[in-house]
From TrEMBL:
<protein>
    <recommendedName>
        <fullName>Ketoreductase domain-containing protein</fullName>
    </recommendedName>
</protein>
<dbReference type="InterPro" id="IPR057326">
    <property type="entry name" value="KR_dom"/>
</dbReference>
<keyword id="KW-0560">Oxidoreductase</keyword>
<dbReference type="InterPro" id="IPR002347">
    <property type="entry name" value="SDR_fam"/>
</dbReference>
<dbReference type="GO" id="GO:0016491">
    <property type="term" value="F:oxidoreductase activity"/>
</dbReference>
<dbReference type="InterPro" id="IPR020904">
    <property type="entry name" value="Sc_DH/Rdtase_CS"/>
</dbReference>
<feature type="domain" description="Ketoreductase">
    <location>
        <begin position="10"/>
        <end position="192"/>
    </location>
</feature>
<dbReference type="InterPro" id="IPR036291">
    <property type="entry name" value="NAD(P)-bd_dom_sf"/>
</dbReference>
<comment type="similarity">
    <text>Belongs to the short-chain dehydrogenases/reductases (SDR) family.</text>
</comment>
<dbReference type="Pfam" id="PF00106">
    <property type="entry name" value="adh_short"/>
</dbReference>
Length: 255
């Protein structure tokens, strides 16, 4: 896989960068010498976060493809290039599938899946055009590898992000692109995903696995980008649940 050997003097864009994992990653990139632009929905909180951590900012709705295309063009106009995209904006709600309002499911998919799609389509061509080597991270979740009751909309969005990332990695490699891609698969992290969806409930199931601070996730992510990792896992404690799912799948191939 293609990695990014250094962050110094690189231009990075972080969606969902005003809080949580996105903010922590943006701050870590600044500390490594990168020029960073954070993208988030609310202009006031995005400006406040940018001032606090020393980044540029663009208040953009990631579900709007035209706005994302303009954002990519704006970043290149400001810096002359873009090298790294952290496609991180996301929301979650905890509701049983048959009781969930369909508009809730649409909103989760709009942000978690279509936001990633729009980010890729806006920024990957710009990275290929303007950078000598680049990298893209799509934030999924361990919820993209396993399921839990009440998280149907969230999990289907994250499973889709995993599949999209795997497919894109194969396509970029086949055409010998200088852009690498990885999928971030965090477990429980102290973020405001539920609040981002306008809900007060905690959407993350209580698995007994540790709750990481966003800064811990950033500390795992940056070396993975340098290595060019396709799968970036934050919680090794989850290995047993993933292995159990794979064993069940393997057992189904009994014919």
């Amino acid at each position: 896989m293609v990695g990014l050997p250094t962050f110094r003097d690189r231009v990075a864009v972080v969606t969902g960068g005003a809080s949580g994992i996105g903010r922590a990653v943006a701050a870590a990139l600044v500390a490594e010498g990168a020029e960073v632009v954070i993208i988030d929905l609310d202009p006031a909180s995005t400006a406040t976060a940018a001032q606090s951590i020393g980044t540029g900012y663009l208040p953009v709705d990631v579900t709007d493809p035209e706005a994302m295309a303009r954002a990519a063009a704006d970043v290149v106009a400001m810096f002359g290039r873009v090298d790294l995209l952290i496609n991180n904006a996301g929301i979650a709600v905890a509701e049983a599938f048959l009781e969930m309002d369909i508009d809730t499911a649409r909103r989760v998919l709009d942000v978690n899946l279509w936001g990633v799609i729009h980010g890729l389509r806006a920024f990957v061509p710009m990275i290929e055009r303007t950078s000598t080597d680049g990298f893209v991270v799509n934030t999924a979740s361990l919820g993209g590898l396993r399921t839990a009751p009440g998280l149907s909309a969230y999990s289907m969005s994250k499973f889709a992000v995993v599949a999209l990332t795997e497919t894109l990695a194969e396509e970029l490699a086949a055409r010998r692109s200088r852009v690498g891609v990885g999928v971030l698969l965090p477990g429980r992290v102290a973020t405001g995903l539920g609040r981002a969806a306008g809900r007060s409930n905690d959407p993350v199931p209580k698995t007994g696995e540790p709750v990481l601070a966003p800064e811990q996730v950033a500390a795992i992510l940056l070396p993975a980008i340098v290595r060019g990792d396709l799968y970036i896992v934050t919680h090794p404690e989850a290995r047993g649940t993933i292995e159990a799912r794979h064993r069940a799948l393997e057992a189904a191939f009994h014919v």
